[in-house]
Structures are given as structure tokens and as C-alpha cells.
Specification:
alpha/beta; 5-stranded parallel sheet; two-stranded antiparallel sheet
Length: 119
């Protein structure tokens, strides 16, 4: 029996990076997991999708055109505290990512190290 695809919301304003995430998650893995990706380039749109759709995980950039920093993770967790959140960060923003984990993010990933095994 084929497992149901995992629904992932990517809240990220860099279209190229979203494409990288899609490519990474499209690669076959040893467990046979499949992913369906929905994306939002603004926090407001991401929150709207979170409130109206079911997701298994959120990949969240903390620097968006309409929200920046810890306010971003706080709003996502306030909307859906039952969905695991992986914070996407740039090199040098690790301290912000650690603070986001203290607020409820499950983990963080530095964008420059993105690959299918890490995701």
C-alpha cells in the first residue's frame, strides 16, 4: 500500500528556493515518502492557507515581505500549534533560529545546506 503524500506548506518569498525545496522533496527516499507542496510568498497568505487547509508540516522563512523575525513564528504557531514547523534561515541567523525553536519551532535548517537528506 502506498502511503498518503505528506502535505507541506512552504512560506518563503524566494521562488528559486521554493523550486530547490520541490526538487529535494521530489527525490525518492528509502521510506518511499511522497510530498505535496503548497507555497505562500507572504505570511498573510500562509496563515490563510493554514486556517483553511490541512498540512503535515510547515517550512517557514523568518524574513518575509510582510513579517520578519520571531513575530513570524509566533503568528504561525498561534494559527496552528499542532503542525510541526521547520524554520528556514540564512547563514548568520542561527541565533534567531534557536530562539524560534524556543518559541515552538521543531527545528531549523540553514538554506545554504539544503539537500534532500536534510529535508
Amino acid at each position: 500500500m502506498t502511503p498518503k503524500p505528506l502535505q507541506v506548506l512552504v512560506i518563503e518569498d524566494d521562488r528559486d528556493y521554493i523550486d530547490i525545496i520541490r526538487m529535494c522533496l521530489d527525490e525518492p527516499d528509502s521510506m518511499g515518502l511522497k510530498f505535496e507542496i503548497e507555497s505562500a510568498d507572504r505570511l498573510a497568505l500562509g496563515l490563510k492557507l493554514l486556517s483553511s487547509c490541512t498540512f503535515d508540516a510547515v517550512l517557514l522563512d523568518l524574513r518575509l515581505p510582510d513579517s520578519e523575525g520571531l513575530e513570524t513564528i509566533q503568528q504561525v504557531i498561534a494559527e496552528r500549534n499542532d503542525v510541526p514547523v521547520l524554520v528556514l534561515t540564512n547563514l548568520g541567523d542561527e541565533s534567531l533560529a534557536f530562539e524560534a525553536m524556543r518559541l515552538g519551532a521543531q527545528d531549523f535548517m540553514v538554506k545554504a545546506t539544503s539537500d534532500s537528506r536534510l529535508l
